[in-house]
């Protein structure tokens, strides 16, 4: 397969490329439709503003895309941790999803942490009913501390109901290990895990390499069955908060702007590096919140 792009560590993160024209299969659902394309995030709310729904909506706005949200969970958290979690009743989540799909022209859906098998089923039902052009699945399953966030029945539902509906899945190493049941300790194991994830039904996989010890670089690996790529970035000495949420949302926003999947992924990985380099500490904790707007291509254009 051709390699669609690599970048060496130490090289400056470039501005994202201009969006390509919309491919026919993406344009068809919206023929003669004057509404702007919107991106929908289905995830949890972060009261600290660094991750989850808040990070997703900031990312959409930074990319010039109208953002919609369906809140699957609410968290009380700050820069030092999570203090409480509330999961709204599933009927209210379904109402949010119906409201978004019934009125807006949704070009891409980004999915974050879903707390239970019932929540996953509700989201999968909506996706099967409305069939949005793109679904970006960030399978949030492992906390920063390493704790597993999903029960076994939820993990099974994620594998069997959501992964097959995804256009791309963006796990980190611990999440990929849970999904595949494999240990991922080196590049060869990472490649095998990507193949296993694609066999679950997702056409494209971006395996985030921050948990692998590969020297001074973080290497993210992309494969869609037609093209593959490695995206190399400097390993920065900071603990970023909301990087996975922001990356998946940036991919979704780029798809809404008309980029092809490989270009959307590459632009999103570069956006994350710029946002992390410009990050700041708004609270008393050590975590860095990303500079979503300072990293925007709209600002640097």
From TrEMBL:
Domain Pyridoxamine kinase/Phosphomethylpyrimidine kinase: 46-287
Name of this chain's protein: hydroxymethylpyrimidine kinase
Known EC number: 2.7.1.49
GO cellular component labels: cytosol
GO biological processes: thiamine biosynthetic process; thiamine diphosphate biosynthetic process
UniProt keywords, alphabetically: ATP-binding, Kinase, Nucleotide-binding, Transferase
Pathway: Cofactor biosynthesis; thiamine diphosphate biosynthesis
InterPro entries hit by this protein: HMP/HMP-P_kinase_dom, PM/HMP-P_kinase-1, Ribokinase-like
Keyword ATP-binding: yes
Stretches that traverse the bilayer: none
GO MF annotation list: ATP binding; hydroxymethylpyrimidine kinase activity; phosphomethylpyrimidine kinase activity
Region called Disordered, residue ranges: 1-23
NCBIfam families found in the cross-reference section: HMP-P_kinase
Pfam families in the record: Phos_pyr_kin
Signal peptide: none
Organism: Thermomonas aquatica
Domain of life of the organism encoding this protein: Bacteria
